[in-house]
Write a structure and sequence with these properties.
By secondary structure, this protein is of the alpha/beta class. Helix content is about 40%, strand content about 20%. The chain has 13 helices and 15 strands. Helix 2 packs across helix 5, helix 3 runs antiparallel to helix 4 and helix 10 packs antiparallel against helix 11.
Length: about 450
């Protein structure tokens, strides 16, 4: 029998009615054996996510020594969920009391933030009658804070395959010191992918509140085309550049195991969704471009120095300055005598940019250094681009016709994407121009 691991996001599990819907979805397919769950999300636009309420608990516990005021909102939220599910025999108060006490005692931001997933998994396992398996017992991090796959995968397989079905909280595991550690926000996607790889699933279903990936942001282009099939490589590029249906890092565990991902809509389960495939299983469609995504607010540091190409270690010296200040760069386009560093602007606030420029000058003595601020990056992604003559001309003609000035161009050696740097104020127009050039 085939095996599917499902992950449901916070919007899918925001209240008892949604959880009941999720239970119906899961039980409608006997292949769905293991379910990874997020903390309850927003029920309405003005509502707050449970994880955000838990951060309030952490802050209050530090300031007052207890978190009774902030935790009362958590308590009320889970009381409501349990009542909606008619779980009269489930002693939620005992679990909530223990959780509140541990938050106050441990005073750990990771432990506190993880409790939304933990509590929701306890409730859902009770409602569905499935085994609860705590993520802290099967997912581990090494001494460097990275996911420890050598320790985790055997335990995931050994533990979960004891049970016919199981519910696992997402977002966290255990660090090298035995303490609860979380992934980055949205990390339940990563947890789901890790569990799928650990049990050698045939499919990883990621259930959310959208019916798959769209070719671009629907807030910018009205009713963009839905992507039916996409490769892991294309998804990685689009996710990294801001297409946030799926956490970008969740791709790696399933990619190593050649496990497809299916993006599905909890509120429209009949929709086909988007199937994300390993390279060996992916067949390029007819289209040249698969999708367009981008992000605003970058700073570009442009360096020029004669005979730069003949100076051994030039780039290393520049990057060492960034490393020493713990700043990461997005892209590094270069020419024979030029090099540009593209950096998210928030890394350079509070005088950091000025310090960085001084240290770069001291390290490599450039002839010229210039800074471009308020830059947006837009990536046009697709396997069809490499084999289609005139793709770049088509893209840049569209931008020219729209009156958009391109400040920077970067194309990967795989020819999977073309990234352009433009002014922030041209961001939306840029995406519309590219979309209309390739999809209409």
């Amino acid at each position: 029998m085939s095996l599917t691991v499902c992950k449901f996001g916070g919007s899918s599990l925001a209240d008892g009615n949604n959880i009941a819907r999720v239970a119906e979805i899961v039980k409608s397919d006997p292949a769905r054996k293991y379910v990874v769950v997020s903390a309850p999300g927003k029920r309405f636009s003005e509502d707050r996510k449970v994880t955000d309420l838990l951060y309030d608990c952490y802050k209050e516990s530090l300031e007052k020594g207890n978190c009774s005021e902030a935790f009362s909102k958590i308590r009320k939220r889970f009381h409501s969920i349990v009542e909606e599910l008619n779980l009269e025999s489930f002693d939620i108060d005992a679990i909530l009391d223990e959780t509140e006490k541990e938050i106050e005692t441990r005073k750990s931001i990771d432990f506190t933030a993880s409790r939304g997933e933990y509590l929701n998994a306890r409730v859902i396992s009770a409602f569905m009658g499935w085994q609860f398996v705590d993520a802290k017992d099967i997912i581990f991090f090494d001494a460097n804070g990275s996911f420890d796959e050598k320790r985790s995968y055997p335990l995931i397989f050994e533990t979960l395959t004891k049970y016919e079905t199981a519910i696992i909280p997402g977002f966290y595991g255990t660090d090298a010191k035995g303490e609860v550690k979380t992934f980055s926000r949205g990390g339940s996607d990563i947890s789901g992918a890790i569990v799928a790889r650990g049990v050698n699933a045939e499919l990883y279903e990621n259930w959310t509140d959208v019916s798959g990936f769209l070719a671009c942001d629907p807030r910018i282009v009205e009713k963009p085309k839905k992507i039916e099939n996409i490769s892991f490589k294309e998804l990685r590029e689009l996710s990294y550049m801001g297409a946030n249906v799926l956490h970008a890092d969740s791709i790696f565990p399933v990619r190593k195991g050649d496990i497809p991902i299916k993006i599905k809509n909890t509120f429209r389960p009949q929709d086909a969704g988007t199937l994300i495939l390993p390279s060996k299983k992916y067949k390029k469609g007819e289209g040249i471009v698969t999708g367009i995504a981008g992000k605003k607010d970058f700073t570009v540091i442009f360096l020029e120095k004669s005979m730069m190409n003949a100076e051994v270690g030039f780039a290393r010296k520049v990057l060492s300055v960034l490393e020493n200040k713990e700043i990461r760069f997005e892209h590094m386009p270069s020419g024979i005598d030029t090099l540009s560093l593209v950096i998210e602007s928030h890394f350079l606030e509070n005088g950091i940019l000025e310090e960085l420029l001084v240290e770069i000058k001291e390290a490599v003595h450039p002839d010229y250094i210039h800074v471009l601020e308020n830059i947006a990056l837009v990536a046009t992604v697709g396997h069809g681009m490499a084999s289609s003559v005139g793709t770049s001309a088509r893209l840049f003609s569209a931008l020219s016709d729209a009156g958009i000035n391109v400040r920077m161009i970067d194309q990967g050696s795989s020819e999977l994407n073309i990234i352009v740097g433009i002014n922030n104020e041209d961001y939306e127009r840029c995406i519309r121009a590219i979309y209309h050039a390739f999809f209409q």
